[in-house]
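re: the backbone from monday

yeah here it is again, tokenized this time
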């Protein structure tokens, strides 16, 4: 029987990457849950630290501060990367955790660190020869995740390490430039364009970075993309 229902339209904004919810499920040790692709309205735009990590007395969150049930060393490793706890990452790697290990969605700890712009952590992973363009089960790379927010330093680091600037994800064919443009991240947009990103590249619905910037009211980004 043919399904005539219209396809749900998705946009390349930070909240639609579902990183937050799927990480919460994965790190908390729950199994048997399928990841749900969220719309921008389903998940508030906020840093993962607000969700997972209470602040330590000195104001710095570490992987030891987060009470999690029965977590494996690999879960703790990804958690440490996600909150920017480089010392915790190194400690767990020294205890035998594989630096390229992935969660149930095939995300590496480096991708999680890139999502919140933890540049020193990403730099360490690159020094350990973690694949810069590793794709998770959604076809997304660390550069795509980093491009969703004000993470210019992390984006530059990944580009300098050879990250492919025009790869697209496997679900919607969103590129790093589309993510950055949709979020109005001008500095990231500039870096991606300077690295050769194609502003005319279209997703599966024929929309470009210009369309996403325009629909979200980022007029200065639109002007830059049209130059």
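seq for it, each position gets an aa:
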């Amino acid at each position: 029987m043919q399904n005539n229902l219209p396809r749900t339209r998705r946009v390349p904004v930070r909240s639609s990457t579902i990183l937050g919810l799927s990480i919460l499920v994965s790190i908390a040790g729950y199994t048997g849950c399928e990841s749900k692709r969220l719309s921008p309205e389903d998940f508030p735009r906020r840093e993962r630290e607000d969700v997972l990590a209470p602040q330590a007395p000195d104001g710095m969150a570490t992987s030891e501060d987060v009470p999690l049930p029965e977590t494996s060393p690999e879960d703790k490793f990804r958690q440490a990367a996600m909150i920017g706890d480089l010392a915790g990452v190194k400690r767990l790697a020294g205890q035998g955790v594989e630096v390229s290990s992935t969660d149930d969605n095939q995300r590496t700890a480096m991708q999680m660190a890139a999502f919140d712009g933890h540049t020193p952590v990403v730099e360490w992973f690159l020094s350990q020869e973690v694949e810069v363009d590793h794709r998770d089960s959604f076809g997304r790379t660390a550069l795509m995740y980093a491009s969703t927010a004000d993470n210019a330093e992390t984006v530059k680091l990944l580009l300098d390490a050879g990250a492919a600037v025009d790869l697209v994800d496997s679900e919607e064919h969103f590129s790093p430039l589309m993510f950055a443009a949709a979020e109005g991240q001008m500095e990231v947009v500039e870096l991606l364009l300077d690295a050769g990103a194609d502003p005319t590249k279209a997703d599966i619905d024929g929309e470009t970075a210009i369309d996403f910037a325009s629909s979200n009211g980022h007029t200065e980004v639109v002007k830059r993309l049209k130059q």
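The chain has twelve helices and no strands. Residues 167 and 192 are 12 Å apart (CA to CA).
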